């Protein structure tokens, strides 16, 4: 019997779904809280530090701003750029908002999960399962580079 390509796709989606479910179960075991995402995070490519903190508006939301950029002072400088706003914490993740990719200048839906000193930022269009994840590492201090906000 000839196997249809859709069977492979369904198998891949089921495999990915099981992987995400396992991630959620692991997050629940670690006792993640809404405050775990707050702080300074080094991007996966080590080219930027993003600060996640409470948004001024709306209250109770989580915002992310680039506070250090390896390209500071050049035309590619993104210091001070807000790259995410997530409105609610639900099921061990910040959700219901957007993330901005400064490289492509596109906005996506987003989910943020934290496991100890790793922040997983998942950007997607449509269903979360079809997105891409960038893992960031927690840092305690900022390298020199960006100018202080006015």
Write a compact overview of the structure shown.
The chain is an alpha+beta fold. The chain is built from one helix and eight strands, in the order H-E-E-E-E-E-E-E-E.
Distance between the termini: 68 Å
**Order of strands, widest sheet:** 1-2-3-4-5-6-7-8
Mean pLDDT: 81
| Helix share, percent | 10-25%
Order of helices and strands: HEEEEEEEE
Shape: globular
Q: What's the alpha carbon Rg, rounded to whole Å?
A: 17 Å
Largest sheet: 8 strands, antiparallel, barrel
Strand content: 35-45%
Protein structure class: alpha+beta
Please report the total strand number as a whole number.
8
The quaternary organization reads as single chain
Poorly predicted runs = 1-29
Q: Specify the number of helices.
A: 1
How would you describe this structure to a colleague?
- It is a single chain.
- By secondary structure, the chain is of the alpha+beta class.
- It is built from one helix and eight strands; from the N terminus they run αββββββββ.
- It has one helix at residues 5-30; strands at 39-42, 48-54, 62-69, 82-90, 93-101, 106-115, 118-124, 132-139.
- Strands 1-2-3-4-5-6-7-8 form an eight-stranded antiparallel beta barrel.
- The termini are far apart.
